[in-house]
Design goal:
The complex is a heterotrimer.
Chain A: H1 5-14, H2 16-48, E1 55-60, E2 71-72, H3 73-80, E3 95-106, E4 113-121, H4 124-128, E5 133-137, E6 146-150, H5 151-156, E7 165-168, E8 171-180, E9 189-193, H6 194-200, E10 205-206, E11 208-212, H7 219-228, E12 234-238, H8 239-246, H9 248-283, H10 285-294, H11 298-324, E13 331-336, E14 341-346, H12 351-378, H13 381-386
Parallel strand pairs in A: 4-9, 6-8
Antiparallel strand pairs in A: 1-11, 1-12, 2-10, 3-4, 3-11, 5-8, 6-9, 7-8, 13-14
Helix pairs in contact in A: 1-11, 2-9, 2-11, 2-12, 9-12, 11-12
Chain B: H1 3-11, H2 15-46, E1 53-58, H3 70-75, E2 80-88, E3 91-92, E4 102-106, H4 108-114, E5 119-124, H5 142-146, E6 150-154, H6 155-161, E7 168-173, E8 178-190, E9 199-203, H7 204-211, E10 220-225, H8 231-241, E11 249-253, H9 254-263, H10 268-296, H11 299-308, H12 312-345, H13 360-387, H14 390-395
Parallel strand pairs in B: 4-9, 6-8
Antiparallel strand pairs in B: 1-10, 1-11, 2-4, 2-10, 3-7, 5-8, 6-9, 7-8
Helix pairs in contact in B: 1-12, 2-10, 2-12, 2-13, 10-12, 10-13, 12-13
Chain C: E1 4-15, E2 18-30, E3 35-39, H1 46-53, E4 61-66, E5 69-70, H2 76-86, E6 87-90, H3 102-107, H4 117-130, H5 146-158, E7 164-168, H6 176-193, E8 196-200, H7 204-208, E9 212-217, E10 220-222
Parallel strand pairs in C: 3-8, 3-9, 6-7, 7-8
Antiparallel strand pairs in C: 1-2, 1-4, 4-5, 9-10
Helix pairs in contact in C: 4-5, 5-6
Classes of the chains: A alpha+beta, B alpha+beta, C alpha/beta.
């Protein structure tokens, strides 16, 4: 015979203060857990959406990021001539050689500065990276001192808004457009015309060459051809793999911190839940004894209290979800020391994260409720009936 | 027996509850102090670098070089006693690709004398040839000075990587591609708190010849001042020299330069503080919950004590003290545990930071936070107990 | 002068919005060293009267003078102080603190008085020896029988040497034999130590041990 769930539900509701405080303790833990998941999600989304498995990015041998790489014009022409490079509808090869540098800019609203990636592109870059779209203003005119800035950067750094002027060296560039890129890391960059930026920055050298493959299944072969060519001294990677690598250290760090903090808070919350359940069991000693006398098995008593503990924790879990929801979409950013530039991204509270939060709270309820439930089931009958 | 022992006895009333509460407060305070430790470490990192030395870089960013021609013009600025070059190399040891350490290409006849109050040469190979060094250079650097591919490595790094004096290590360049062999001819140790991290120094000429085709592009100039209090004006003067040139410069104290790297972490300190607050709030809830339960069970006893003549305010004090004692115990345990665990871990993000530590001030803050929160969490049950009328208390039999 | 003078006392309770009168204009005297049994059916207000005399509740109207002090006029703090010196309570359910030993329980009221730890211990010991529990000092209430617990409670009531002892059904939870021991003890305290005792009881047997019996019914006295 199983105890009706309404018995547990009513009991939980009958102790509002104790229920609420325990639920809040669980809730805070769940909120932080979801927050950590949201941070990691947002971060991953920024990088995953950045690279495509249809594109190849070429860097100099040994370079561990775009800014430490260098590819000459000649080398870039060799790459353009490869038969594996896909053509655009007009027949031009979809190849984008790019100058990439990192400049120091003041943060907006916070003291200190950080590094912003500036990328020199040709018009083909927009076709190669089709998720990039102008959100406000317009694309820069090739050959002019105009730039477009990623939406995320325009909000986080001083002097990067529409109409503002950015100074590189001795030249002033006007921000004529703001662009989005589906959350990709390009949104943390400023883009200008290659031809104009090259002399300002590093001279006759590109930092990377990216192209679209005609047949993505041929990647391994393409890689071999490029890396074996004695004229080139390059390494080739799948664009998606490259960006995933770039974020590895930071992603692991974020994950580690998130897990560390959440685990510790969970331990505390479990202790709190245990306390509450022990008190509940203690207060209902005679009640439990009566149930046992009536014929309910100790097992059903135990299950009943476990359910109560889980129910209590789920309330906390729901509270935690509510607490965590507002952070969805909040932009933040930090310097990815691997690429040595700022990466801005937004917290992403996914349905999966919310579900994970609820499951986590239920798990805390199970762990916290186990010992008290065991105690309730094991209680000696006669003594219990006499107790006040 | 006295009032304090009454408090302690009450805590012993339900040992399991007291222990569980104590443990959750310990855990919460551990986290609070660990997070505080991260903030402490970041604060320490900001203190790297001297305030009486300047760093000059390309105003656009660190990835851009400064022409070598600037050197003479900077040297001419009154108040600058010495200039040294410090270029970031960015190499990896292929045998240990995840063990991060710095490598700087420097002009040793200027660099080492400039840093003699911060770096001390520990061990050195004997020189192969006779060579006369400038008067203010450590004579132990003789062997290093005679070989262009020689390097000086920090003692700490030597130990970590298992290298020996005289050994040739080969690094892979990321910015300057290829294999770069270096022979270890001396080791150094940092003798000042302000000098951070562990890594190696080698000859700028080597970098210039092998990696730059002889072009000699400088990343950072370090400037030693004869009058350190003039740092701000001299910095402005240096930058004014190149304001209208193709490569304009940005000069700041070495400390500000180092602090700039830390500021790249942006929001993180804020986020950590927010989490710390959440943790503190969670402690409050746990302790409050326990106190409410504990006091509710003692309603009739509270009535009896009042009957005996104990004042409402005394009862109030007893309950608040009980709450504070539990949280104090957890606070002390958690804070000390955090300091011990973190200080002994020597985690230093590969030399990017000083080794992680928790300042005693943070431990003290953690303990005080626990104490205050404990007292606050006891407020409501204490208030209820003090306001309880005797007749109601005695009538309530739970 | 009477040890206890209750003059025209009214007491009513409020439940929800209803006023329930319990005592209406009660007048009652107890002479020093008197031993009075207060009897009556449940709900008659006898416990209420006892609580008023003991200063653990306050009347809605009227005077209550105990040992020369009108306690109806005292505020909470002064009343607490007064209680600690002038009155000793004995309850039906003993109301000992379970986490304290017998000795500590008896010592408890002395924490409110100015005396050294040594003195407190000595006094508590003496009180416990007086009630015949000198060999049970470090026992906890759960290790004592009902009768022994009540004796500890009496020792506690005595330890600050109050003039008045108030007992609410002191033998209500005890078997015949233990109850008898308690009543004997109370008689002795009254005869030898001149304590004024007011005892609420519904047991006629217990009532017989008092000097006089007073009946209370619906808040009205009758002898």
């Amino acid at each position: 015979m199983a105890l009706p769930i309404s018995y547990n539900v009513r009991n939980v509701i009958q102790r509002p203060v104790s229920t609420l405080t325990t639920a809040l303790g669980v809730g805070l833990t769940v909120a932080i857990f979801i927050g950590a998941l949201a941070l990691a999600s947002g971060f991953r989304a920024a990088l995953v959406s950045t690279g495509s498995a249809d594109n190849v990015i070429v860097l100099r041998t040994g370079a561990d990021s775009e800014i430490s790489s260098g590819i000459s014009r000649d080398a870039s022409d060799v790459i353009r001539a490869l038969p594996d490079v896909a053509p655009d509808p007009d027949g031009h090869p979809l190849v984008s050689p790019e100058v990439v540098v990192v400049i120091t800019k003041q943060r907006l609203g916070q003291p200190g500065s950080s590094n912003v990636t500036v990328r020199g592109v040709d018009a083909v870059a927009m076709r190669l990276r089709d998720r990039v779209k102008i959100a406000e203003g317009r694309m820069f005119t090739p050959g002019t001192d105009e730039v477009i800035v990623g939406l995320r950067i325009s909000r986080r750094f001083a002097g990067c808004g529409l109409g503002d002027h950015m100074r590189f060296g001795q030249r002033e560039f006007t921000v004529v457009g703001l662009f989005t890129a589906d959350g990709a890391s390009f949104e943390s960059e400023a883009w200008g015309d290659n031809a104009v930026l090259m002399p300002v920055f590093r001279g006759e050298v590109f930092q990377s060459v990216t192209f679209r493959m005609r047949d993505p299944s041929r990647f391994a072969a393409i890689k071999q051809v490029l890396e074996a060519d004695p004229r080139l001294h390059v390494q080739a990677k799948l664009e998606s793999a490259f960006y995933a690598e770039q974020s590895q250290t930071l992603a692991s760090l974020i994950q580690f911190i998130g897990v560390f903090i959440t685990l510790i808070m969970a331990v505390g919350a479990v202790f709190g839940a245990m306390n509450t359940m022990y008190a509940a069991v203690g207060a209902r000693t005679r009640e439990i004894a009566t149930l046992l006398v009536l014929g309910f098995s100790p097992w059903s008593i135990m299950v009943s209290f476990m359910i109560e503990s889980v129910f209590l924790s789920l309330i906390g879990g729901a509270l935690g979800c509510v607490l965590a929801l507002p952070i969805n979409g909040i932009s933040t950013g930090t310097t990815n020391f691997q690429s040595f530039s700022e990466l801005a991204f937004a917290f992403q509270v996914t349905p999966a994260a919310l579900l994970a939060g609820l499951a986590f709270s239920a798990a805390m309820g199970v762990v916290g409720g186990f010992l008290p439930a065991l105690r309730a089931a094991r209680q000696p009958l006669a003594a219990a009936l006499r107790a006040t | 027996m006295n009032l304090l022992s009454l408090v302690l006895v009450n805590l012993g009333r339900n040992k399991r509850r007291t222990v569980l509460t104590l443990m959750s407060v310990t855990v919460a305070l551990f986290l609070f102090c660990a997070l505080g430790g991260v903030l402490d470490t970041l604060a320490d990192a900001i203190k790297f670098g001297s305030e009486s030395r300047l760093a000059t870089r390309n105003a656009m960013g660190l990835v851009f070089p400064i022409p070598q021609a600037y050197r003479q013009r900077i040297a001419a600025v009154p108040g600058i006693r010495r200039i040294a070059v410090q270029n970031w190399f960015g190499g990896l040891d292929p045998a240990n690709p995840h063990n991060f350490f710095f490598e700087f290409a420097v002009d040793p006849e200027n660099f080492f004398p400039m840093y003699r109050s911060e770096i001390e040469i520990a061990e050195a190979s004997p020189p192969q040839a006779q060579i006369s060094l400038p008067a203010d250079m450590d004579p132990k650097l003789a062997a290093f000075m005679t070989e262009q591919t020689a390097c000086v490595v920090s003692e700490v790094l030597m130990k970590k990587m298992g290298w020996k004096l005289g050994q040739t290590i080969t690094l892979q360049g990321t910015i300057y591609p290829g294999s770069w062999p270096f022979t270890i001819r001396a080791t150094y140790r940092a003798i000042s708190q302000a000098f951070g991290g562990s890594g190696m120094f080698f000859h700028f000429k080597y970098l210039e010849q092998k990696g730059m085709g002889g072009s000699g592009a400088v990343g950072v100039y370090k400037l030693e001042l004869s009058h350190p209090e003039q740092a701000a004006e001299i910095a402005k003067q240096v930058d004014a020299l190149f304001e209208n040139s193709a490569a304009s410069t940005h000069t700041e104290t070495e400390r500000a330069f180092a602090a700039g790297f830390v500021s790249m972490y942006g929001n993180i300190p804020f986020v950590l503080r927010v989490i710390g607050l959440a943790v503190a709030f969670a402690i409050l809830l746990i302790a409050a919950n326990t106190m409410v339960m504990a006091v509710r069970e003692r309603t009739s006893e509270v009535g009896v004590m009042k009957t005996l003549g104990f004042e409402d305010s005394t009862i109030f004090g007893i309950v608040v003290t009980e709450a504070a004692v539990i949280t104090l115990g957890g606070g002390v345990a958690g804070s000390l545990l955090a300091k011990y665990a973190i200080d002994t871990s020597h985690f230093n993000a590969g030399g990017a930071f000083p080794p992680m530590t928790v300042h005693w001030a943070t431990v003290a803050t953690g303990i005080s936070v626990a104490l205050v929160i404990g007292a606050v969490s006891g407020l409501i049950p204490a208030w209820q107990a003090s306001r309880l009328r005797i007749v109601d208390a005695l009538r309530r039999v739970e | 002068m009477s040890a206890i003078e209750v003059r025209d006392v009214y007491k009513e309770y409020q439940r929800d919005s209803q006023h329930i009168p319990v005592l209406s204009g009660l007048t009652f005297d107890v002479a020093p060293a008197d031993f009075v049994a207060l009897m009556g059916p449940s709900g008659s207000g006898k416990t209420t009267l006892l609580n008023l005399i003991g200063g653990i509740d306050q009347p809605s109207r009227g005077q209550i003078v105990v040992g020369g002090t009108d306690i109806a006029k005292l505020d909470g703090r002064k009343l607490a102080k007064w209680r600690s010196r002038n009155v000793g309570f004995i309850f039906q359910l003993y109301n000992l603190i379970p986490v304290l030993t017998a000795l500590q329980n008896v010592e408890l009221p002395l924490l409110l008085a100015k005396m050294s730890g040594k003195e407190r211990l000595q006094r508590a010991k003496t009180a416990l020896e007086l009630v015949g529990l000198g060999d049970r000092l470090s026992h906890y209430p759960r290790q004592l029988s009902g009768g022994q617990e009540q004796r500890v409670a009496i020792a506690r009531a005595l330890v600050s040497d109050p003039a008045v002892l108030l007992a609410d059904e002191p033998t209500g939870d005890l078997d015949r034999k233990s109850g008898e021991e308690i009543l004997q003890l109370l008689e002795r305290l009254n005869a030898e130590f001149k304590k004024t005792i007011v005892m609420v009881t519904h047991d006629p047997h217990a009532a017989e041990r008092a000097h006089r019996m007073v009946h209370l019914d619906k808040g009205v006295l009758s002898n």
